[in-house]
Amino acid sequence: MLNFYGRKFPRKIKNDQLKSLNDFEFFLDKNKIKRFNAKIKKFKSFNLEIGFGGGENLFAQSQKNNSHFFLGCDPYLSGSLNLEKLIKEYGLKNLFFTNLDFLELFKSLKCITFKKIIILFPDPWPKKRHKKRRLINSNFVDLLESITCDETKIIVATDHEDYLNQILYVFYKSKSFILSTKFIEYEVFFFFDISLTKYYKKAKKNKKKIYFLLFEKKNLKKFF
Q1: Is the residue at 33 inside a domain?
Q2: Is residue 176 part of a domain?
Q3: Does residue 123 carry a catalytic annotation?
Q4: Which is nearest to 99 in space by CA: 46, 36, 53?
Q5: Which one of 23, 74, 123, 193 is the catalytic residue?
Q6: How many domains does one find in the chain?
Q7: Which structural domain range is residue 29 located in?
Q8: Is residue 4 part of a domain?
Q9: Residue 206's domain is classified under what CATH number?
Q10: Are the beta carbons of 74 and 6 closer than 8 angstroms?
């Protein structure tokens, strides 16, 4: 089997599927991501989805905004395989994706600042001993500062109340981002045209309360 840097494979995946994905120009591994900068200069703005799952929202967003650049990262390959099929079927040229996790991807993103970052239902790691594995922590928010610009929008959805409190706290501690009060709950999803993903539908089916948050990077020019 091809080396995908220890990523998590779907069941019954075949070597020819992995080879096709590895060779696909819109799939970025560690080597290709260093060479794709020339392909993105023509786009108006840059958007990132961290943990794109099955790719439903990432695909829908890129299809509706073909002059904007979209990048998704998720270490699970099932979503990558799905996006490969969709990009080929619809001929998209503005959607790139990778199986690198965010921390690995971050090392190659110093040349890009994103206007919108979407994080839908990140793993809450509910057990106390596992909380350190959560994506959104103080270090994560600090990293976001260098890949965002004035008034960047960060959209987060979670159905886990303890994780919600952690997210609110780490962004509150940051001096770069503020919690927007422009929208109430579901209005965030509707205004930014976020797709109702598998995890959203699962939370609704299980009658869990879903929390929607919008953070904005402060425009320092407004304060001087």
Answers
A1: yes
A2: yes
A3: yes
A4: 53
A5: 123
A6: 1
A7: 13-215
A8: no
A9: 3.40.50.150
A10: no
